[in-house]
Amino acid sequence: MDNKKNANEIQVELSEEMAQGTYANLAIIAHSSSEFILDFIRIVPGVPKAKVQSRVIMTPDNAKRLLHALQENISKFEEQNKKEISSDINDFIPPIGGMPGEA
After folding, report:
1. Under DSSP, is residue 51 helix (H, G, I), strand (E, B) or coil?
2. DSSP class of residue 84?
3. What does the pLDDT look like over 1-46, one tens digit per residue?
4. What predicted TM-score, i.e. pTM, was given to this entire model?
5. Distance between CA atoms of 72 and 68, rounded to whole angstroms?
6. C-alpha dist (Å) from residue 25 to 34, 70, 79, 103
7. Backbone angles phi, psi at 28, to 5 degrees
8. Contact (Cβ atoms closer than 8 angstroms) between residue 59 and residue 53
């Protein structure tokens, strides 16, 4: 059984540069019939342009797996920190005074 488990393992390599991570304080999500596009953006106060830091394109199946993984990790975070993260979109305060636009 151990051999079968080892055959299904994936070794993930993380370069030193990638391990530093990229900070984003806004995500914009779009989708087509075959993929989800997640743009992670960094908004800096006083700067009129916001730059996309990273774009991730996923299949709908993997997007749903990501959703479940995020839900599970948020639940663990709230339990460990005894703090509930607000899910009310009206609680969102943009880092720059107001964000005009359309949804």
Report:
1. strand
2. P
3. 555 566 789 999 999 999 999 999 999 999 999 999 999 999 888 8
4. 0.72
5. 6
6. 26, 16, 23, 18
7. -115, 130
8. no
